[in-house]
Write a structure and sequence with these properties.
The complex is a heterodimer of chains A (121) and B (108). Chain A has 121 residues and is mostly beta strands. Chain A contains no helices and 11 strands. In chain A, the strands form 2 sheets. In chain A, strands 2, 4, 5, 6, 9, 10 and 11 form a 7-stranded mixed beta sheet that branches. Chain B is mostly beta strands and 108 residues long. The chains are: A mainly beta (121), B mainly beta (108).
C-alpha cells in the first residue's frame, strides 16, 4: 500500500518561513512526479507545485512562484515544500500527492493526510 | 487555464437516494481527462473516477461518472452514510491542472 506521511507546518507570522515534508512508502518514490495541493479556508483545492520524478523540472502556481520551492530527496523517499515570505492568504491545509500516470492520463493518487499552515500575526 | 465550475455548491439528499453532481469546464477537455475526488474533513482526499467515467480501484459501483467535452457528471446511487462529503472534479488535460470549487453533499 502506498502511504504518504506529512510533517512540518504550523503557525508563523507574515513574512515567515516554514518547511513541509512528505515521506512516501510502499512504492518506488523515484518513479513518480509529486505535487503539493492546498485547501484554503472556505475554498476548494488549489494546485501549488509539481516536481518531476528526477527533480529536474518544477512548476509552480502563479500565487506562490518566487516564494515557495519544491524539492525532493529520492534517497530518503521524501518530498519537501519550502515556503518563504508567507502571507495570510497562504493559510490552509497542505497536501502532498503522487501523480499517477497511465495511458488514460495522469491524476493525483494517493494523497497525504494534510498539514495545517497558519500565517497570522 | 481551464476553469471548472461545479454545481450545485451544496446538495441535500437523503440516504438511499441518488445524488447527481455537475462539473462544467470553460474549455474542451480532450480525451475526457477529468477526475473526481471525495474529501471528508480531516482526511486525505480520495480518488474516485478517472477519464470521466472509469472507477478507481476499490471504488464501489454506486459511484459513476459520465460526460465529455465540457460537461461532466458524478452520480452516486443509493447514498450511504459514508458518502456525505465534499466532491471535487479536476481536469488533467492541460497545465496547470485545475479543480472545481467543490460540491458539498449533505444529509437531508
Amino acid at each position: 500500500e502506498v502511504q504518504l506521511l506529512q510533517s512540518g507546518g504550523g503557525l508563523t507570522q507574515p513574512g515567515g518561513s516554514l518547511r513541509l515534508s512528505c515521506v512516501v512508502s510502499g512504492v518506488t518514490f523515484s518513479n513518480y512526479d509529486m505535487n503539493w495541493v492546498r485547501q484554503v479556508p472556505g475554498k476548494g483545492l488549489e494546485w501549488v507545485s509539481t516536481i518531476s520524478a528526477t527533480g529536474d523540472t518544477t512548476h509552480y502556481a502563479d500565487s506562490v512562484k518566487g516564494r515557495f520551492t519544491i524539492s525532493r530527496d529520492n534517497s530518503k523517499n521524501t518530498l519537501y515544500l519550502q515556503m518563504s515570505s508567507l502571507r495570510a492568504d497562504d493559510t490552509g491545509i497542505y497536501y502532498c500527492a503522487r501523480r499517477y500516470t497511465s495511458s488514460w492520463g495522469n491524476w493525483l493518487d494517493p494523497w497525504g493526510q494534510g498539514t495545517p499552515v497558519t500565517v497570522s500575526s | 487555464e481551464i476553469v471548472l465550475t461545479q454545481s450545485p455548491a451544496t446538495l441535500s439528499v437523503s440516504p438511499g437516494e441518488r445524488a447527481t453532481l455537475s462539473c462544467r469546464a470553460s474549455q474542451y477537455v480532450s480525451s475526457n481527462y477529468l477526475a473526481w475526488y471525495q474529501h471528508k474533513p480531516g482526511q486525505a482526499p480520495r480518488f474516485l473516477i478517472y477519464a470521466s467515467s472509469s472507477r478507481a480501484t476499490g471504488i464501489p459501483d454506486r459511484f459513476s461518472g459520465s460526460g465529455s467535452g465540457t460537461d461532466f457528471t458524478l452520480t452516486i446511487s443509493r447514498l450511504e452514510p459514508e458518502d456525505f462529503a465534499v466532491y471535487y472534479c479536476q481536469q488533467y488535460d492541460s497545465s496547470p491542472f485545475t479543480f472545481g470549487q467543490g460540491t458539498r453533499l449533505e444529509i437531508k
